Each structure stands twice: as structure tokens, then as C-alpha cells.
Amino acid sequence: MTDIDLKTQFERDGYLILEHALNLGEVGKLVDEAVRICRGELGDIQGALPAASADSDDDVLRRFLCIHYPHKLSGLVLATMRHPLIVSALTSLIGPNVKAMQSMLFIKSEGEPGQAWHQDEMFIPTRDRSLTAAWLALDDATKENGCLWVLPGSHRPGVLYPNREHDDPRYDCTVESYDFPYDDCDAVPVEIGAGSVVVFNGYLLHKSLPNTSRRGYRRALVNHYMSAESLLPWGVPPEGTAMAQADFRDIVLVAGTDPYAYKGLQEVRRPRIRPNRDGGCDK
């Protein structure tokens, strides 16, 4: 598929699939690295309980649903954030200068919940609507084990739909998007093989359902990117000029140049587990 084809499909549907972007050897190394991360061998994870040496890898993994910012612990995860095939697609879609601001490692063993309908841009606000996710499957992602579902074209209006709290036990976060002009019957499951990547727009409505398989994981590494040419007012109260001038600088440049490099970089976020339902969800 040419760059023009990629961009046309992305603009139409709000997502595209990079089939087998990583080979099974690369995936296997990331699966092994996930165990080391969950054991705490690569550094502390805020909110995580220490693993005992006698615990099996299975026991350790099943304690986690999602770890935020694993790229701050693992050189391999950081390198995957810059994977050439992923970055090539991003530069075609976003532009020559691309930065990343977040990574998430999902484990999601059997019985674990999914996430309700939401838009990533609601949680990570950009100034230019360039927010783009790269969702890398570390296991085959199927309807049974909780693959992504998307509403194709829901990004095109450029509207951020309202959020409300919910108590649906199928989902791990306490908010969901609502009042949008789409029905569940419009949703499409995105079933992909291990090593494939779903790239999608920050305005695209998407969700996942629980892992209903009898035994197994739906592991995924998810990174968020945007144009390096735009400021990122993330984590700043939306008040007056502070919001307009804010620029989150805990970033990783993955392509091109950073026009704001003169500001330097900051260590703002720490690796942590996702809060439970009572703690909410902030991507």
C-alpha cells in the first residue's frame, strides 16, 4: 500500500492496519520484556506490589491489567516506540516531525475487562488534532479475547463527544463517551495477528470488550504520537493563557526535528499501574 493509499484510508476510516509490522521474533522479545517489567526487574512501578521470586511468570502477569509509561523502564519498549515501520506510517499520516508522549502495556488475561467507547483526544488534548495511536498486538487479538472495536469514520466531524460515569462491569474505567450519532451495529471488530499494528486517529471512537477466552492473554503495547510542530497542553488546568501556552515536555522525538527543543525535556510522569474502577481512567 502506497503512502497515498494509507492516507486516503486513514482519512476515510480513521484507522488502518499495518499487517505484521513486527516479526514473531520481535514480538517474542517484547513478551519476555513484559514479564521483566511486571516483575519489577527494570524499575519501580507506582502502585504495583512486589513480585516474589517464587511466583511463576503467569502469576506475575495476571496481577496487571495495564502499565503506563513502560518505555521509561525498558530500552526495548523505547526502541519499539521508534520502530521504523511504525514511524514510516506516522510520518506519512502526521508529517515529518513526530513526537510520542505516552506508552501503555496492556496484559488483559481472561476475565479482565475492556474499555467503554472513548476518544483518545478527550484525554490527551492536542492543539492541531494530530493525536495518533499505534496499537501493537503481542498476542493474536480476537473478538473472544477482547480486540479493539471501532466506529469507522467517527473521527471525521472533529467533535469530542461528552463523557459520563457508568457502572458497567465489562469496562475498567468509570467514564464512557455518549450522545454520538452512531450505534453499536456500526461498530467493526479489529481482529489482528500478533505483530500487527492498528494505527488510529485521536478522534476515532473505539472500545474493547472483556477477555472471555477460557485461558490466555490479550497483550498489547500502545503508544501515542502527535506532530512535534504543535504544543501539547496536557495536564494543565484549562484556564486563560496558561492553557494556550502550555507544552508538555515529557516526550520522545521519533522522527524529524523538534521545533521546541530549546525548551528542553522534563521527567513528569512515572511508570504506574492503571487505577482501579474507583480511581478512574486518564489514558
Account of the 3D structure:
There is one protein chain. With 283 residues, this protein is α+β, with helices and mostly antiparallel strands. It has a single domain (3-279), classed as q2cbj1_9rhob like domain (Jelly Rolls), CATH 2.60.120.620. 21% of the residues lie in helices and 21% in strands. The protein is built from 7 helices and 14 strands. The strands form 3 sheets. Strands 1, 2, 3, 5, 10, 12, 13 and 14 form an 8-stranded antiparallel beta sheet that branches. A 4-stranded antiparallel beta sheet has the order 4-11-6-9, with no helix packed on it. The chain is globular. It starts with a helix and ends in a 10-residue tail after the last strand.
Summary of the model, kept short:
This protein is 21% helix and 21% strand.
Label the overall shape.
globular
Work out the helix count.
7
Query: In the CATH hierarchy, what is the architecture at level 2?
Result: Sandwich
Q: SSE order, as H and E?
A: HEHHEHHEEHEEEEEEEEHEE
State the secondary-structure class. alpha+beta
Helix content: 10-25%
**Beta-strand share of residues:** 15-25%
Layout of helices and strands, plus pairs?
Blueprint: H1 3-13, E1 15-18, H2 24-39, H3 57-61, E2 66-68, H4 75-81, H5 84-93, E3 98-106, E4 115-118, H6 120-123, E5 132-137, E6 148-150, E7 163-165, E8 175-177, E9 188-190, E10 197-201, E11 206-208, E12 220-227, H7 240-245, E13 252-255, E14 272-273
